[in-house]
Amino acid sequence: MLDNRVVGDAHFDMPFMVGQVNPTKGYIHVFDDTALDIVMRTLDTITDFTAYLTKKEQFLTGNIIVVAAGEEELLSAYLRTMNASGEHDFIIDGNYDRVVFDEGMWQAFRNRPERRAQIESDRISYAWDDLIEKFAFHFMTGTQYYTSGRQVNEQEIMFRYLAREPRVRRRALAGSLHEVLERSIHSKRMLEARVMPPTGPGEPHYVFLFLRRKEGITDEQYRTVRMNLLAEYCAVTKLKFPKAVHIVGIASEAGLPPQRSEDLIYLDASNWGPKDEARAKGIQKQLGILRKVTPGKVHMYEYPVDRDGKPRTATPSDNSPSRNSPCPCGSRKRFKRCHGRELFAKGHK
């Protein structure tokens, strides 16, 4: 049980209570096995986890007396409310000096249809986690197909940008990546690419590229061409988006090859100069890269909504037409090509 009135040595007299263990050393978060499992499974990115710890510390060290039957009850209150900045927070409406979070709040939150729909929509986001693990594995074991030869601390920044993305943003990134891949499956073009702009300060621009393999070329030739092309796309991205400072590129085979490989590069554009700009202009002119930039905008909802903007109370499989049936909106498109699409934040083609 959590009670922020229990401070320091008072814990000896109240062994099943957790408050402020040692205020002179800052707030100390204490989790039992059950609470730790719930928190880590629910907030399973470093950004989401640390954001919760920060807001929880601010809440429990404030002027309101807080009593909670368990960590999970506190977590449910955090996930159900947002502040004016669009961040999860502990928002208490009214002028209260004491707040109690009873047992059962977490279970009720878990059973809400909006929460179940969120979990379903987050499934695609774990493709981003898989990419991180794959890149990190080859990086740590020295089995990368191609490396710049830079020191570990210079390459580590790429993985930090990938890993610091919160779950909702990963949903958007993985969805967009999958969308470009799907486009490459049905397209006859050699290349499909997209630039994903940041949604907040300090975030990188992402370049997604899928290149079809020509017949008769070796793996080495193909990987060299693809890596060079990805680097050129990153350079032209800086040209098209002058405020871009950090650019991360991810490339793979177009279509559905027997085996799939991925490339990962990072462009630090903080020292971008006239020579870099001139080179990028030359690349763009020669290859026709990103000449026509078409932005797309769509809201990303943590808790999914239907096409009318109302909270979705069931997962798509519960009440939606099949993927290949006509869309109910009357567009004559297949459902998966129209309103059956997930609400992914679009980038720039």
Provide structural commentary.
- This protein is of the alpha/beta class.
- The strands form 2 sheets. A 4-stranded mixed beta sheet has the order 2-1-3-4. Strands 5-6-7-8 form a 4-stranded mixed beta sheet, with helices on both faces.
- α6 (126-141) packs across α8 (167-186) and α9 packs across α10.
- It contains 11 helices and 8 strands.
- The N and C termini lie far apart (52 Å).
- The model is unreliable at 314-323, 327-331 and 338-349 (pLDDT under 50).
- 40% of the residues lie in helices and 13% in strands.
- The chain has 2 domains: 2-111, no CATH class; 117-287, no CATH class.
- The radius of gyration is 24 Å and the shape is elongated.
